[in-house]
Amino acid sequence: MIDANSKTNRFLEAIEKYAEQQRSEMRAEVEAFREEQLQSANEEGTAAAFAFIQEQKQEFKAALAKETALKETQKKRELFEKRNKMAQSVFEEAAKKLVDFTKTSKYREYLGTSARLIKEKLGGRQARVHICERDKKYSSLIEEIIPGCTIETDSGIVIGGISCSCDELSIIIDDTLDTKFEERKRLFVETSGLMVE
Q: Which residues are within 8 A (CB) of 80 and not within 5 positions of it... i.e. 6 or more apart?
């Protein structure tokens, strides 16, 4: 009976030992599986974090580029407005000086020279000479240089000078200070670098 008991105890011990061994192996497998899963999750997390960082970096670059472009456009607009005001100031000052010139004795000489050039181009043909209202006082000077011309006032001539139309030649000769001023103004804008690119 002792022998049977002893065999049973050894059998139970062997079963318990085997069970403990199986538990140990299962714990080791579970631990290995857990470590593997943690490593995999860690790698996936690192990859996801890197992808997220790259995405955020691209979004930041895009936002920065947009903000820079907006600021650049705003600065160009401000520069254009500043240049425009400067140019306008220059043009206003030049126009004022031209008007001041029309009040001097040299302006009478200028009109005489202009009338002689127009007479030359007309070659003795009849013409209508256009002047500003303020220059009516020079009508006799113009009629003396261009005999037989008809003198008319033209509200389009603001600064001064002479323009002429000849139906026979189908031409208009514009020697007004207004036109010369506008041509110089256009040339100035084209060559001065005032255009903002």
A: 196
DSSP-assigned states of every residue in 140-187: HHHHHHSTTPEEEE-TT--S-EEEEEETTTTEEEEEEHHHHHHHHHHH
Q: pLDDT value at position 161? A: 95
Structure tokens at 126: 């009849």
Cβ–Cβ under 8 Å, residues 139 and 151: yes
List the beta bridge partners of residue 166: 171
Q: Which amino acid is at 177?
A: L
For residue 19, what are the CA distances in angstroms to 22, 79, 93, 106? 5, 87, 108, 126
Residue 107 CB contacts under 8 Å (≥ 6 apart), including other chains: 101, 160
Q: Does position 197 have pLDDT exceeding 70, yes or no?
A: no
Give the per-residue pLDDT at 139.
Answer: 95
Kindly report, residue by residue over 7-49, the tens digit of the pLDDT. 777 777 777 787 788 888 888 888 888 888 888 878 887 877 7
List CB contacts of 15: < 8 A, sequence separation 6 or more: none
Tokens of 187: 């040339």
